[in-house]
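Protocol step 4 of 6: structure prediction from sequence.
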Amino acid sequence: MKVPLSWLHEFVTPAHEGDELLEFLGRNGLEIEEVTTPGAGTSGVHTVKVLSWEPHPDADKLRVVTVDNGTGEVTLVCGASNFDVGDVALHAPPGATLPGGFELSTREIRGVPSPGMLCSAKELELAGDAAGIITLPGDTPLGVDAHEVFPLGEPVIEIAVLSDRGDQHSILGIAREYAALIGAELRVPDPALPEATGGVPVVIEATAGCANFVTWAIEGVTVGPSPLWMQRRLEQCGVRAINSVVDVTNYVMLELGQPLHAFDLDTLHGPELTVRWAREGETLVTLDDQERELLPTDMVITDADRIVSLAAVMGGAETEVSATTTRVLVEGAIWDPKTVRRTSRRLNLISEASLRYERRVDPLGARRAVARAIELLQEITGGTPGLASEAGAAVSDHREVLLDPTWTPRFLGVEDLGDQAAALRRLGCTVEERGDLLAVTPPSWRGDLARPADLAEEIARLHGYDHIPSTVPAIAQRGGLTVVQRAERDVREAARAHGFDEAVTRPFVGDEAMVPLHEEDGRVRPMNPLAADASALRPSIVEGLLGVVRHNVGQGRPGVAVYEIGRIFRPAGGPLDEVLDAFGKRWRWGDRHDNALPTQPITIGLAAQGVRVGDGWVATDDRWDVYDVLAVLDEIVRRLDGTRTLERRAVERDGLHPTRTAALYLDGEEVGIVGQLHPRESDRRDIPDPVVVGELLLEPLFEALGEPDRDLDRAPELVRHAAMGIDVAVVADRDVPYADIERAIRAGAGDLLDDLWWFDEYAGEQVGEGRRSVAVRLRLQAPDRQLTDADAEKVISDVGRTVEAIGASLRR
């Protein structure tokens, strides 16, 4: 909202000047976007009267003009044609300065000397139109400095208006704010509307879209240019001057915040106007000469035969005020903001009127605005007010808000806010004391005040933000992380320790997205998808990570490994729900909503491709593989639940390699997947093969966690004794899963086992037909002593005994 300071000063006497005013407004909630001073730097320009003119002898579009500056005659060349003998203009003689530092001199134009120039509004920064020179009333004194005619160099401040502060889209609204802040008296034009009887009848059929409709006729008007002072103010606020009638309606809209519309009364058909919803197939040619197709969701104003206005957005061309208009009907109404927003956005037709209606105008403001417009029209056009009419009720939509004065300081974190009731009354609120509470009724123009918190914010603003000390609120803090927060931190540390970088991807995917884990669950689809590749909420994190891999490959990265922790989304009641139910519901999102929302478990996804290290390393050909992803997932399980391990079972899944994919099980339930992308899938995504991915549900692991330990975390004691490494080879049938072999080895190694990993496999004559030898390296360590060969022999013996339970034996 652009606010000329001279216009603001008509409403309230300022307590600040210059930069002090700008700083004060900004500090108290009125953000200043820009300050302009149109016409600043103008000097030496004065008024002259045109005595005569004749065509330039050597240029068809130029005139040679003789003017009287009050002390003598001057002849110069002018390119405009919008003036005649007797008009008063502004002359910039040699030595005068125009905005931007441009100094005038005598120039010869096509053989005719021209001492200076006659000025247009654009050259003085009064408007954007340079089609003609400025013409002043004939009785303007000659030789008067331009600063006495126009407020050249006057500051115009542009204020960023918040979406819930529609009242600030007016000079009155800004003046109200400033007056309340400084405790000054507010001067408001408030002409009276006559008794609304006998005017043009109005019928409101669509009462949900229009609450109040006021009209007032004025007859005998003379349509012409509006006064220069009005044109100047409209231009300062970014509104183009059109004619005296339209300019008055725009002026009142800027002044009071209530949009108005003027009809040529003689072009209206029938005895009454009707406010209704548009019908399918109806059209309207609006003031911009565009034919608009209307829908039943659009509000319109009709006369007896046709639509005459697209309500609250733009009027119709057939009833437009023109130079021949003598009778005018001024209309002001209160329209539903949602209806206006829907229509203006659909038609891409955002006007100054619709902008204000969308943000809510004062529901009691239509009468005053219409009366103010008639007052100005009578003064400017010489018309005579006729009859008024009104339909609907001008009623404020505010309800009473109860405020506890002892709560407000606690809410704001201050000790004393002074007289809160007096502060609210400065805003225009009605305040009554009811015991220990304040019953506050906000003024009709403040649609944003609906809760105690809204009132507290206003009290703080009027108290002065700079008077509120910067202190840390006294909040009882228990400290420490929650169980899930600590667990997620451990998961991130495990992934980073294995060389994976964290990524954050969008939660939407397309129909072709991979779903390697429990793919039969289905998908959760939003009602209004963003795009074809965002038609569903992600059922798996893998798809987004593959996009990250593809982007990095496209940027020439030799290798990339990324992970993400986040929620996936599946329809409630699917197979994934059964898995989660098997582990409990303590961390389930949907449990608090009776399954009204989709199932949203926390999951970690991983994806890797290319070399594991960059140039300069020894192992430059070492590439990411499935076992790297398995190592991360195993480490996560070890950190969150040291009593269980993941069991691997070979499976086939769409998009993954049939012989390099395994489902991960915990207590007999599938909780994860790991595998290599099928070569065809890699080609489809334009990612060099091989690409490995993995995904693991974290909530089954969270269920094993206890309540958070509120004590400070303590680092584990250092193990001071060296570890011992031993290798064992287990011979088993080929159909015995490695997971069973590893589980048996862990059981035999017992508490001395620190870690283990597979490093070799052999199948041949030495182990027999249908059997294989799996070599595993064990890392043994004790916290309280150095291990000996006897300890190693005992572990080997115990492992030999435990593997026998699965039909295997140690290879000696």
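Step 5 (inspection) to follow. The mean pLDDT is 88.
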